[in-house]
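All the exercises in this workshop are built on plain-text protein records. The record below serves as our worked example for the rest of this section.
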Amino acid sequence: MKALSLSQSKTSTLTLPLLIAMLAMVIDHVGVIFFPEIILFRYIGRLTFPIMAYQLVMGYYHTQSMFYYYNRLWLFGLLSQIGYTLAFDTLDFNTLFTLLLGLYLLHSIDKKRWEWVGFLTVLVVVSHRFDYGMFGIVLPTLIHLMLTHVPKRWQIYFLMWVYVLWNSLFVFLGDLPLYQLIGVIGLPIYHFYHKVKLIDMPRYFFYLFYGWHLLGLFLLYGFLYF
């Protein structure tokens, strides 16, 4: 997700990792909706969330206003919920809401505000209603801790190791499939290539794309099968 800025820029930069995340997301959702029996689509889709979580952390570091950053995720999460609910026939909350909670947890812990303890307790109860659940909500904080407490030359190795351990816990608990581990590849993709800029896109394009492509896939499914 593009970091919030108070500047008057009308564009957002499409980087190589964001392009990979978007393509992997579309492939994943095409598989869920049209080809649920072909597991390869789900494998490819595992690259998306780690890249989004890493981008969220970078956005946190560079934003000039946490208020607008929170509200951007909230607004576009709300708009995207229409396509998410229709495409997947669920009342659970979409990935942007997962990132919103992840941002709040990260921000609270980073600023040593102790309400995060109670917040985390509540998350244990309600996290199953959010895409990626507790795994996704906590992942940005883990990425932040690795980036701020590990020497730069070792960061990517610790990031990947922590991702595997954190993911394995939820695989063991039965909350995530084993193939979710493939997502670890998304971390070095972002870590090494996030500065590879491709083209400028309209402002908020990345947020809008999430909801738009889900709604588009839902409408296409209805056109083809009803």
Remarks:
- The mean pLDDT is 92.
- The chain is about 70% helix and 5% strand.
